[in-house]
What does this fold into?
Amino acid sequence: MPANFDQLIDRSGTSSLKWEKYKDKDTLPFWVADMDFKSAPEIIEALHQRIEHGIFGYTVADEGLEDLVVERMNNLYDWQIEKEWIVWLPGLVTALNLAVRSVAGEGEYVAAPVPVYYPFLTAPSLGGRRMVGLDWVLENGQWRLDLESFKTRLTDDTRLLSICNPQNPNGRVLTRSELEAIEAVCKEHNIVVCSDEVHCDLILDRNCEHIPYAGLSEFTRDNSITLMSPSKTFNVAGFGFAYAIIPNDKLRSNFQRVRKGIVPDPDNMLIGYTAAKAAYQHGEPWRQCLLDYLRGNHDYLLKEINSIEGLSMEPLEATYLAWINVSELGLKDPHGFFEEHGVGLSPGAQFGDKDYLRLNFGCSRELLEQGISRIKAAVESLPH
It folds into this structure.
């Protein structure tokens, strides 16, 4: 049965984080990165079968899932990996924090691009490490990383660079030349890269391709931690399932050592294993339908946002998360302003830039149109 992404699904009463935030308010939620679409029917069927078995004890990933991950990396991204490199985890944020603590010592520096998904900004300080920023700059309608400025900030004890590719929140997909430029800096300064690639299956721009950082060269293979999950692509974030791919034995051993006694062992992810295997085995047709729908939503949103005076948005290359510039409105609290007008967005300050808001368009077109209507009305209510 073909996916119906136009279907409006009532998520009230389901303990949805996204919708519970505005439970008693007339506010539409476009904030957290959680789509309003039913997951692929093959995933739902696999979960039904597993639940009907009735026994939910400690579980290991079967070799079939490991083989599927290996095949997926090769088929989609021309990246050859080994099963032994895979480390199962209960989430990407957990993995990001483990990477920080397993590579950099206390008081040493971790670098991250800014703006970026906010756990990148908090992970260093939570682990007793310090942070140095790598700026995103907008030039001729294109976001790029300012590596020249970054090199002047690097310290001798910068151990890790955490990148997000595709980028959350600006939607960039780093090109091979950009990744090679990052590699050159890291090679010169002996820096390991933790690459969060959770949005890699959500490329909207057909002229872009996802290139895993670890697949560039022997250096990147041996000095990298790659983080992935089916959570964003197949809308199964509530299952707490992810994995790291760490080719270097020493890095992988340190990563595993740091998790001991703090992060649960991967024997309690029964539902996540089940969903991931079904997604990777049978979910590709659904994913392609999803991408087509998201591209339509993106093009609609891009046109509408840029037609509203005081708002602007650059085309996204990936993700379902729009990055909207609201600086021309001159608002002291843009997030609060739009909330008051019935639109719940993510504040840009959370990601490192208060002049922006992030909007999740992983929803039905009808809901997105309602949101745009409210955004227009909110802006029109401002004094001219």
Observations:
- The mean pLDDT is 97.
- The chain has two domains: 17-41+284-379, 57-281.
- The CA atoms of residues 140 and 201 lie 27 Å apart.
- Residues 17-41+284-379 form a domain with the Aspartate Aminotransferase, domain 1 fold (CATH 3.90.1150.10).
